[in-house]
Amino acid sequence: MDVGALAFDVFGTVVDWRAGVAREAARLLGPDVDAHAFADAWRARYRPSMEEVRSGGRPFVPLDVLHRESLPEALAEVGAGPVPDDVAAELVLAWHRLDPWPDAVPGLTRLRRRFVLAPLSNGGVRLQVDLARRAGLPWDLVLGAEVVGRYKPDPEVYDAAARLLALPPSAVLVVAAHVDDLAAARARGLRTAYVHRPDEFGGTRVPPERDPGADLSVSSLEELAGALGC
Amino acid sequence: MDVGALAFDVFGTVVDWRAGVAREAARLLGPDVDAHAFADAWRARYRPSMEEVRSGGRPFVPLDVLHRESLPEALAEVGAGPVPDDVAAELVLAWHRLDPWPDAVPGLTRLRRRFVLAPLSNGGVRLQVDLARRAGLPWDLVLGAEVVGRYKPDPEVYDAAARLLALPPSAVLVVAAHVDDLAAARARGLRTAYVHRPDEFGGTRVPPERDPGADLSVSSLEELAGALGC
């Protein structure tokens, strides 16, 4: 593959959103709330919350705004009452404080020697900067939804990645743990690498081991680095 | 100052465009061309080349395109003939291969411990990534003209910096060696730090030692780090 840059999905692919949100929820909501069930309930509202933006029914707003809006329902689903505004704001920031999977930083560090690296996430720009500074993710730049004002899997997000990297789409490799993200990237001519993350949903949902449509399927970013000769 | 992020002008402020362009010109055009005069001639076309975009007369194109367009005139001005397309392309890439001022990397490295750092340049996104990877500039993300589709000093470039950093304008400090850039930033509510770079124009034009309108005036990024407690 004649690839110059790698663009990464982040939630689930690079960082463990479920453990991180549950950690912050346990801290902020106390022991009476099932923190992992709360994380699952909140994440279940992630895609629906973007639909109004994706359909053009409302202007683009960053993911922090959507997380804030879907928070009350997620809390209610696990039997937690409304929370004060300052607690709600802290919960939204849980998504800025997620830990990377153990292979992520070593894998990215190897990959960065040869490739330009960027997140290509639906999380906002500041969210990506906060995650990266906290975890040591060695991005060269931040790409993704907020830069474009569109949410994945809208084609503009993938098109803009190649355009801003000044590369043909076929020289950009999108790395994700989600087959629909990769299918949308391929539809715009980008290359794709699937990462198997069996623990993303805490075992409640098991993703496929491989994506037959992807150029590569790996089970860690260190394996990806090896496969790409880094 | 209650500042969370620093946004840097790059050409002249962080990197020495004149020496870098002259170095590449000497390599590509040979000893018969006055490489520094060529660098000055090309740079003199930088602002005029952006005017048609800034006035709305043509859609946004990245700076590489403007550099390519103004190259023949700059060559002619120093008595150099037209060059083949591959040499022209290499000359355009000279702007991706500029060396930082000696204080830049140590200063930025100190500043990054406390602040989010980004270029806020009229140079394109890929240009910034290439400069940073070559020189070791420790940016957290790339902001600036191409992200917004507008050139400084258009207000949208400064507004977008604060918006994407999720900070109020008054929590973003713009750092530049050019008083007009800082004046435009202040007009949008951002804080400003002036860097005195007496060698930017090789002594042909001497910039002021201080900007009385700026929050801070310094003579290096290491001095800036000290002034900000880093």
TrEMBL record, chains A, B:
Q: Which UniProt keywords apply?
A: Hydrolase
Q: Quote any Pfam family the record assigns.
A: Hydrolase
**InterPro entries noted in UniProt:** 2-HAD (IPR006328), HAD-like_sf (IPR036412), HAD-SF_hydro_IA (IPR006439), HAD_sf (IPR023214), PGP-like_dom2 (IPR023198), S-2-haloacid_dehalogenase (IPR051540)
Gene3D superfamilies, per this entry?
Answer: HAD superfamily/HAD-like, Putative phosphatase, domain 2
PANTHER family named among the record's database cross-references: HALOACID DEHALOGENASE, TYPE II (AFU_ORTHOLOGUE AFUA_2G07750)-RELATED, HYDROLASE, HALOACID DELAHOGENASE-RELATED
UniProt similarity note:
Belongs to the HAD-like hydrolase superfamily. S-2-haloalkanoic acid dehalogenase family.
- Return the protein name: Haloacid dehalogenase type II
Instruction: Please name the source species.
Output: Geodermatophilus arenarius
